[in-house]
Amino acid sequence: xxxxxxxxxxxxxxxxxxxxxxxxxxxxxxxxxxxxxxxxxxxxxxxxxxxxxxxxxxxxxxxxxxxxxxxxxxxxxxxxxxxxxxxxxxxxxxxxxxxxxxxxxxxxxxxxxxxxxxxxxxxxxxxxxxxxxxxxxxxxxxxxxxxxxxxxxxxxxxxxxxxxxxxxxxxxxxxxxxxxxxxxxxxxxxxxxxxxxxxxxxxxxxxxxxxxxxxxxxxxxxxxxxxxxxxxxxxxxxxxxxxxxxxxxxxxxxxxxxxxxxxx
Length: 264
Fold this sequence. Notes:
Helix content: 25-40%
Order of helices and strands: HHEEEEHHEHHEHHEH
Strand content: 15-25%
Largest sheet: 7 strands, mixed
Number of domains: 1
CATH topology: Rossmann fold
Number of helices: 9
Shape: globular
């Protein structure tokens, strides 16, 4: 049983790597390039407002940089493997067991990391583990309630990204994050063009991006979710003797406590 479980986990792991390679190739297409430009614009409205010492980009499926607008100086780009990826990759990792200390990272950026991974829950738990209190997780994902999601449901494109990815809905992602103790700060939808790869049609349907923001904002092909890691505070329970009615004492018998002497 243990061997079978390990074999299944290894199979899922390599399936995720294979899907990432295919997704990188797709981002080189006209549709992928058009989507990337809008992802960059969405991130440019978020990343400059997030501060700290360390930012981690978990997975890199394009040869472009998502972090160039971040003001955080120490930037780490990690992926499942470094094969076929440019030199910006700092480390090859397993997203289920990140070699990063607890409470050490200020921002974790996941560009379609959850869409590709076979166990997105574990990835989110790891992000929660390494984030500092009040740290942010920033997630890019494909929306199943878009025209791209409709193509995702069609088995004719099985194995062809991005339509063969998980397509986790924003509502489901928000539920997962809330269960982990995150506070949802913002959700934005964008890219309303149909899933057509030919450059002529990509340009022809460009007007739909402006229309979509006004008339059908919930049906964007891509979304960006920003959530903050909340710190659970314990409410001190007063001893019963503190809840009793105070006894009146003559001022002459009250001795003040000088904390500066006890704690120099």
